[in-house]
Amino acid sequence: MTKLNIGIILGSTRQGRVSTQVGEWVKEIANEHGNAKYEIVDIAEYKLPFLGEGTGQEPGIVGWNEKLASFDGFVFIVQEYNHSLTGALKNALDSAREPWNNKAAGIVSYGSTGGARAAEHLRGILGELMIADVRVHPTLSLFTDFENYSTFKPAEMHMDNVKAMLDQVVAWSGALKTLR
Ligand SMILES: Cc1cc2nc3c(=O)[nH]c(=O)nc-3n(C[C@H](O)[C@H](O)[C@H](O)COP(=O)(O)O)c2cc1C
């Protein structure tokens, strides 16, 4: 059977962001776990305009929609900004519709309280986009899983949680294929 394609979406775009380290770590675990094909998706590369500012036909928007359409499911790397998700991720979510629908997603979040508030906000948005978000949710602490809030040194215990989350994403992404 062909493997499902899962996009690992980096939710932050700022210079000096740590999301690249977290995304690479998730991808490494996912590749070893080997139950799907995984690819990192960097919102920053698409240079998305704010929704409504352009024609909607900019290459970035078209490319973003095409890239999302190529996936069966997603893992969102979510960081907490002012108790919510980043503006960049919200805009990226708003910048597509059908390519999100009837797919599954997992969340890996980080922040002072594990990014829990941002992740819960994201869950509400995912419902509207008809993305089924799975239960297992690895939460990383800025205080104990990073050195100086900048060098990612995750505690060992998170690995099993990431694998369990991936198993749920793959199971639901496969099941929802019947609707796509
Ligand atoms: C504008 C801004 C607001 C933030 N607000 C919060 C917050 O409300 N709660 C929290 O836990 N961390 C907060 N942080 C800290 C971020 O979670 C932390 O800097 C993290 O590394 C950001 O992810 P990034 O490096 O991928 O951009 C904030 C950071 C920024 C830049």
UniProtKB/TrEMBL annotation:
<comment type="similarity">
    <text>Belongs to the azoreductase type 2 family.</text>
</comment>
<protein>
    <submittedName>
        <fullName>NADPH-dependent oxidoreductase</fullName>
    </submittedName>
</protein>
<dbReference type="InterPro" id="IPR005025">
    <property type="entry name" value="FMN_Rdtase-like_dom"/>
</dbReference>
<dbReference type="InterPro" id="IPR050712">
    <property type="entry name" value="NAD(P)H-dep_reductase"/>
</dbReference>
<dbReference type="Pfam" id="PF03358">
    <property type="entry name" value="FMN_red"/>
</dbReference>
<dbReference type="InterPro" id="IPR029039">
    <property type="entry name" value="Flavoprotein-like_sf"/>
</dbReference>
<dbReference type="GO" id="GO:0016491">
    <property type="term" value="F:oxidoreductase activity"/>
</dbReference>
<dbReference type="GO" id="GO:0005829">
    <property type="term" value="C:cytosol"/>
</dbReference>
<feature type="domain" description="NADPH-dependent FMN reductase-like">
    <location>
        <begin position="5"/>
        <end position="135"/>
    </location>
</feature>
<dbReference type="GO" id="GO:0010181">
    <property type="term" value="F:FMN binding"/>
</dbReference>
